[in-house]
Amino acid sequence: MTEREAEPIALAFSAQGYQTMVVEYNLLDRGPVYPNAIDVGLTALKYAKTQGPPHYGDANKTILMGFSAGSHVAALTNAMGNNTEYLKTHGFGDSPLTSRLQVLGYPVIDLAAGFPKSREEAFKISPDEQYWASQNLVTDQTLPTFLWNTCADAVVPTMNSLLYAEALARHHVEYDIHTFTHGKHGLCLSTS
Questions:
Q1: What's the alpha-carbon Rg for the chain, to the nearest Å?
Q2: I need a labelling partner for 180 at 20 to 30 A (CA). Which of 31, 52, 76, 155 fits?
Q3: 57-68 pLDDT, tens digit each
């Protein structure tokens, strides 16, 4: 996650009346990203659902949003939040723990679909290949999803969004996908 994909986005949504929080997960400088990043995401969801109501939040309207690699984390967090075995093994109990919907901006979906550039780099992110292709974890229970990307993205190929949209369609999950012609990687909210 870059700084511009964190607090500035939270503040923009907060200015519109949403309660927001930024979730930081470990990057490669601390070792493999997964499964730690999923556990951090699930911990944040649990916190939002338990602490939201006392602070005038609606626990049933939680949205998980991610950008670039953060989209991969968001999609995996929601997928594992519906996986009873994963939840039990990682100390989250046996009740589903997901948001209401997910927003994935210029998403990394499959670690073998153009980002990162090599299998060696993907293995550094996760030596366990079950976490590589989030489209393979889409089920009928996957949350409604909004995906957006640009054709001009030179970092994460548009194919990532298409792979996820195809999986969502195959499982009859509601989704919107917007692919814009122009725009570099890292547009965030594209407000400047």
A1: 16
A2: 76
A3: 787 888 899 999
